[in-house]
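Write out the 3D structure for:
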Amino acid sequence: MIKKLLLTCLISTLLFAEQNTYTKEQLEKMIGKMVMLGFHGQKIDSDDKIYNDIKKYDLGGVILFDKDPNDKKKIKNVKDPKQLATLSSQLQAINKSKLLISIDQEGGIVQRLKESKGFINTPKASVVATKGENYAKNTYSKLAKVLKNSGLNVNYAPVVDLSINPNNPVIVKLGRSFGKSSKEVIKYASIFTKEMKKENIISVLKHFPGHGSSQSDSHKGFVDITKSWQKEELEPYKYFIKNALVDMIMSAHVVNKDLDYSLPATLSWNINTKLLRKELGYKGVLISDDLQMYAISKHYSLDDTVKLAINSGVDMLMFANQLAKPIKLETIIDSIYKQVRSGEIKMHRIKEANRRIDVLKNKL
């Protein structure tokens, strides 16, 4: 009993010492690197909030959108190709370290760079998969060049969800999946990622561990896939991990009680560490889907969200500032900082996430 108590005290002392190895400023920057943030603005100068976020806190990345969520007639970040290239250049020049400048550009309904704004149109995945490999290669080669010329370096695509449920409202009905079989999805997702890589664009596989069988949309609320999820939905991830073809994976805000009885995937150690890391062998960056989506934000506080996500194995936390009242980077950092100091968020996870993000950025 005494030995066990002494061991507990020793572990507590070592953890406290590890946390206090870093100054407040150093730890805040380590946390800042773990955030992917949405912001309003079509151009940047030194008076802008996002400028300070990047400069002071080493913000890990930004996510860009075309429309203002509060007034879709207004522009949030993207006006046209020339403006976007200038914005990206301004963002990238703020700090010495590489900034991840990301966007959702799958094709079809999920395109922030629209043909009406002077960009090319990219067909949805379900259409591309009907036209053959050469068509897919040509389509995604053109898309990759547009992203490169725009100064972007991360694309939240391809979707590797399987079209299991024909009534799925957020993936299948919108044509965002390449097909029902994992073989078909792997074939076209591979073409997508290879074309992105040629232009040094990081592809993000989504949505782990699979969103193609769901009955509802996690943007709007709680999603339970326990009865509909199939093990085949892991096959694309197994293929890309085994062949070292993936640098980033995005988690899904779905609940599968057979994998984790109570927590959605984004917040689940069983899914993000036990399954993805230990069983599938993934060593790259895991980014959350937008943590302001209602499947998360309506059920968990900010403190609980960041604590559970980071401890579960998520390396980058996305706050897109699209679906809810904008949240400041300082608010996010302050929550994480306090919980690291208290030991509720493990310091080793902060260090581990920073290492993975550094490896990713060094590839750019």
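The chain has one domain: 26-362.
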